[in-house]
Amino acid sequence: MFAHCVSRCARSLLQYGAAITGRTLDENDTPLQVAAGNGLPEHAELYLRYGAAVDKRNDEGLTPLLAACARPQEAQELERYFRVCRTLLAAGADVHAVDRDKHTPLHMACRNANADVVDLLLANGARVNDMEYGGEAPMHNILKVACYKVSQQPERIVRALLNHGSIRVWPGALPTVGHRQACVHWFEADFRGGGASANVVQPPQIIWHYWLSCCCDVIN
């Protein structure tokens, strides 16, 4: 109800001449960037109807799509951000846009473990092996957060990236993942699509369990 009322207010302001090209004082955001960064799909649709530039950048170098993918997202917010990203892409947003550190929307969606957004970006041609300035691909980002995002199906994202040709990250690149007990249940996932493994592996073996499954098995 609150979001609906705010959307009505925004519509009224635009009808009475508010500038769709206005900018915030802090980061030079447009209304569309604010809506995207806060996961407000109705506002994003409204601003686009009024002619908002879909790929305008702010002072941080973020387009609205980058802003939507970059904002930390709680589990209950994932669907709203997915709707925003879908709206932006339908309006022609650049799926290959990068920020100052060369992060793409796919890098950011993987970091947030938003599986629906990852699937959406891949369906729109996102490149799985683009590297940011630190030399990391989107696969690195999902593996870094898998321990903390178990309920968001990180294995689904790994499978999608692999099915689209992602590089297989070598075990030495995953010290954080490998030393956390919370990763055990996630790494039990069978990436061939056959369900969870019956055996629980301990942290020193987790990396190899995952790595060998990626290298040796056919991903369906």
TrEMBL record:
InterPro entries, alphabetized: Ankyrin_rpt, Ankyrin_rpt-contain_sf
GO cellular component: cytoplasm
ANK repeat start-end pairs: 27-59, 60-100, 101-133
Gene3D superfamilies found in the cross-reference section: Ankyrin repeat-containing domain
The UniProt record lists the keyword Repeat: yes
UniProt cross-references to SMART domains, sorted A to Z: ANK
Keywords noted in UniProt: ANK repeat, Repeat
PANTHER family xref list: ANKYRIN REPEAT AND PROTEIN KINASE DOMAIN-CONTAINING PROTEIN (PTHR24198), ANKYRIN REPEAT AND SOCS BOX PROTEIN 10-RELATED (PTHR24198:SF173)
Protein name per its UniProtKB record: Ankyrin repeat and SOCS box protein 10
Organism: Liparis tanakae (Tanaka's snailfish)
Upper lineage: Eukaryota, Metazoa, Chordata, Craniata, Vertebrata
Gene for this chain: Asb10
